[in-house]
Amino acid sequence: MIRNRVREIWEAGRPVLHGWLSIGNPFTAEIMAAQGYDAISIDLQHGALDYSAALPMFQSMRASGVGLGARVPWLDPGIITKVLDAGALTVICPMINSAAEAAAFAAAVRYPPRGLRSFGPTRAAFAQGADIAAKANDEVVALAMIETREALENVEAIAGTPGIDGLYIGPADLTLGLTAGRLAPGFDREEPEMIDAIRHVLRVAKARGKRAALHCGSPDYAARAVGWGFDLCTVSGDARLLAAGAAASVRRFRDLTGGGDTAADGKGGY
Prior knowledge:
This protein is an alpha/beta fold.
């Protein structure tokens, strides 16, 4: 069986540069996979795609050698099993709020006796090679998302759950949960209270011998997070990068030609 690129990089003592796919298209996935990321995950929670789109996206990225993963829509063993069988080796699960939910997630990603994953690696048997039943449990990475006040209150128990490999901070939802809407959701938080919360999750993960991951909006913030000790940083994603690149190109043209503002003034970005 092939190695999980994420685990290989961690074993080498380096942080993982992680990409994000929200557009359900194999060609855009192939383009992103060719840009030098260590690993890329397909977002089945908020991305504009479903499993039928994710499968060919995994196929299109295989040649790049990038580590493949997915954020599943919710804590559901059915879709967790399907993304693993499709070729994911890293699974990110949103809204893990308790040790019980963390344990259910950990069980869903591994075969017995360490979990409850059902055996049937339809595509993985071809894409990942032989001995999946014997080796997959040690290669799969399970990242539990910490993104609510309840999760932050239970973070030590979540981090201490056997089978959870790391904690993945979703700063947008965490901001909503901790500030009751006082602060707008978003990445790259600068508020002292949010930085304290982010670094608290990091400390807890390290104390429990687990990895820590953070979703970032810019390479500058991701590099800062690596300096704090994060093991994996997501740096933006396909939809945001496309919007930012197109907006910058349009602005540059308008500046050079004196064309002024038009209806396409970048407000369509997000």
